[in-house]
């Protein structure tokens, strides 16, 4: 005969199982949300990084333009001076300055050209980063919306499950409930059938004595291997 507490224990266990799984699913939501948010942040950061790089290159280009401008001014002055000098050695010295200034300008212009190419590819990277976020944002947002919905429904389901667990607990007498509470936090399911002489929890053979207790049903039987509450299922 089955101990009278077995039936309500199995009901409690079943509801406790549902409550636990809801609770686990709910606990996973923040992690899922953080993963989506991390992708959004990474894509936004890539845009910001590309923008910063582009801006920096534009600044370098402006600086170079200023440098080129003053080098050209200098060159202009040397040319004017050269057209005014009479002495040959002064003329040659200025000629040397002019060559140096021209070389400097052409070096600066080469660098400017390089920077312009870099700006082009930087713009492309910026556009690509923006496009990536644009392409993905609807998907990210729908994922976040699904998660918010999931969180809300799981919260409601969990609350309801907690209520049904409480009801099931109320249907048990103190002694059986206390035993269940002792076992369940560590060993779940806490209440299992013995079939063919084996515990349905640890699958080890229970002693004849333990099986006898379960079979008789006067007291709650315990598996002598794992300590679970056992009930006898004919086989
Ligand atoms: Zn066992």
Describe the model.
By secondary structure, this protein is mainly alpha-helical. The protein contains 4 helices and 4 strands; from the N terminus they run H-H-H-E-E-H-E-E. Strands 2-1-4-3 form a 4-stranded mixed beta sheet. The two termini are 14 Å apart. Bound molecules: zinc ion. Zinc ion binds at residues 199, 201-202, 204, 223, 225-226, 228.
Short description:
The chain is mostly helical. It is 77% helix and 6% strand.
Core attributes:
235 residues, mainly alpha, Helix Hairpins, 2 domains, four-stranded mixed sheet, 4 helices, 4 strands, binds zinc ion
Shape: rod-shaped
Oligomer: single chain
User: What's the helical proportion of residues?
Assistant: over 70%
* SSE pattern: HHHEEHEE
CATH-scheme architecture of the largest domain = Orthogonal Bundle
Looking across the biggest beta sheet, what order are the strands in?
2-1-4-3
Number of helices: 4
The unreliable regions are: none
Number of domains as seen in the coordinates: 2
Bound molecules: zinc ion
CATH class of the largest domain: Mainly Alpha
What's the rounded overall pLDDT mean?
A: 96
The count of strands amounts to: 4
Largest sheet: 4 strands, mixed
How large a portion of the residues is in β-strands, by DSSP E? 5-15%
User: End-to-end distance, in Å?
Assistant: 14 Å
Could you say what the CATH topology of the largest domain is called?
A: Helix Hairpins
